[in-house]
Amino acid sequence: MSLGPRRDRGISPLFLALLLVVTGAGFMGLKLRLEAISRAQVPGSSIIYIPSGKYLKRVSFGFQSAMADAIYLWAIQYYSDTSIPNRYQNLDHIFGIISELDPSYEDPYLTGALIAVYEARDPDLAFKILDRGMRRNPGKWLFPFEAGHYALLFKKDYALAQKYFERAMNLPGAPPVARRLYANSAFRSQDLDTAWKTWLDVYQTASDERIKKIASNHLYQVKATVDVGRIKDAVGKFKDKFRRLPMNLGQLVKAGFLTGVPKDLDGQDYLYDPGNGDVTPATIPWKR
Amino acid sequence: MRIRVIAFNTFKEAIRDRILYLLLFFAATSIILSRVLALLTVGDRVKIIKDVGLASISLFGALMAILVGTGLVYKEIDKKTFFTLMAKPLYRHEFILGKFFGLVLTLFIMLGAMSLIFLLLIFLHTFRVEPRILLAIAFIFVELVLVTAVAILFSSFSTPILSALFALSFYLIGHFSWSFETLLKKMHSGLGRAAGQVFYTLLPDLENFNFKTEVVYGLPIPPAMIGYALLYGALYTLFILTLAVMVFRKRDFL
Prior knowledge:
The complex is a heterodimer.
Chain A: H1 13-36, H2 53-58, H3 64-80, H4 91-101, H5 106-119, H6 123-136, H7 142-155, H8 158-169, H9 177-188, H10 192-205, H11 209-242, H12 250-254, E1 271-273, E2 278-280
Antiparallel strand pairs in A: 1-2
Chain B: H1 2-14, H2 18-39, H3 45-78, H4 81-86, H5 92-126, H6 131-155, H7 160-186, H8 191-202, H9 212-217, H10 223-250
């Protein structure tokens, strides 16, 4: 009975192997069993301890970028888990940490805003995240470009969309469509003068016939809107003075409410209905 | 009887290790500093003290188990004292188990000292004893017993530095194995996922011994969880110790 290799017969190898298999199988089975037991959780407990990115930066030992990657990967998994209630509550905090750690990392801004808009249904939060991206990356056109889309589609705030697209189109590398979206937003927000000038610029500088055609259609639309507005205004004044609607647009000129009957961009007359005083363009702009 | 002698001698040897007191000093400082940290918070200060205190006990306890445990067997071989033992009527498994129990006893004393400071600090703030905190500490001890077995296993065939690295990796894997499960959920079912599932169940899950959140927030702990977690810890420890005995029996020292 000694520690020498040959005389060590304390426990048989077969017993040891058996013990290894039994204990191994035992703890593996128990692990599965333990996982089946649901433990009480503090709502959002996995994230409430994440301090601000400023402090994390100090303890990252120069691995800020890797830490940002890790938190970003974790955040994607976290927001994919639909069973977590109130998970959007900390969306800004989490994506704020990532941007603090790695301000140039573009994806988290875009993903954070995407989650805010499509999942959390909170466009204002998306603007907050994208605005942060713009502040930290003032030369990147993608953040104002995305924000412009969200303002256009989800908020229907055309003036806000115009502001974002204006910023995007003036940044290096911005696609030409940014200028067209800016012009369209200006039109929708009733900034007709800006819309006209921008579409005219697009028309004059376009090298592509398709773009030229698009710009021309929009110019038609802007001009028609201005003209129809002026005519309707004159019709209103005519009615106030004569207590009836004019029989045709020429009467508006004769009465001095218009200097001349406006024509559309293609030189055609606007359609006037003497029955109700409605004025419409002769053509639908995109069917020209 | 022979295991007891080895265990007692191991305890006497480990308790004289200066690194143990250094770690105890840092643990005590960290626990006491939790009071300072609590001053910086707005709201429940005791929560901060509990969080930081339990984390310090767990972390420094694991460091004690790893740093002391990984050198235990190696030192005996390196200093040739092991050859003296070879001449004695002693089995190798008795040697390994003796070392293990000796270190477990040492850690029990150290854990007791850290817990005493921690409980005293809590008592000074709340003027009451919370028995549930003892449950969290008891499971920290279960975790330390497992980490000790792992340290002994690596110490039985590797150098202290490598053993410490391996044991530390085991500790980290044990606390982050849930992330592997997350990965498995994203995988398509098939052979790869099945193999991953087997590998995952083999990996230690030290979160089964983590009741800190439940204790701090006063959340209910399923009674079955306590029993199964205890059994899980015992079986995993036995598995590692069996592995350590098998490895150590195969070693040739001559």
